[in-house]
Design goal:
CATH architecture: 3-Layer(aba) Sandwich
Order of helices and strands: EEHEEHEHE
Number of domains: 1
CATH topology: Rossmann fold
Mean pLDDT: 93
Shape: globular
Number of helices: 3
Strand content: 25-35%
CATH superfamily: Response regulator
Distance between the termini: 6 Å
Structural class: alpha/beta
């Protein structure tokens, strides 16, 4: 299980299939929520995650196995819904509270 302190998170990447849709929407919404923390949020195709700079990866459940394979030492947070997902809300709260974030 990988973990990262919220204070060490400067870059979150939202992994996607091709980078053209719902993941962009998630990345934009997350960037707005974490603007005060100075965290950059981008998106990347899951097959290019190894090249994408990140401290944490956020990925839809359908791509989670591929994301974990691409970046096995990174914290990978899985979500199910592109809007209003509880795991995304928990992630934002943990970052805002300065918690340690773990995958799994």
């Amino acid at each position: 299980m990988a973990s990262v302190s919220a204070s060490d998170i400067k870059q979150i990447v939202v992994a996607c299939e091709a980078g053209m849709g719902s993941s962009v929407m998630v990345a934009r919404a997350l960037a707005k929520q974490l603007k005060a923390q100075g965290i950059a949020v981008t998106h990347s195709p899951v097959n290019q995650l190894a090249e994408a700079p990140h401290d944490l990866v956020l990925v839809h459940r359908g791509l989670s196995a591929r994301a974990k394979q691409a970046v096995p030492d990174s914290v990978v947070i899985i979500f199910d819904m592109f809007l209003g997902d509880l795991n995304i809300a928990k992630l934002v709260g943990a970052i805002q509270n300065g918690d340690v974030i773990s995958d799994g």
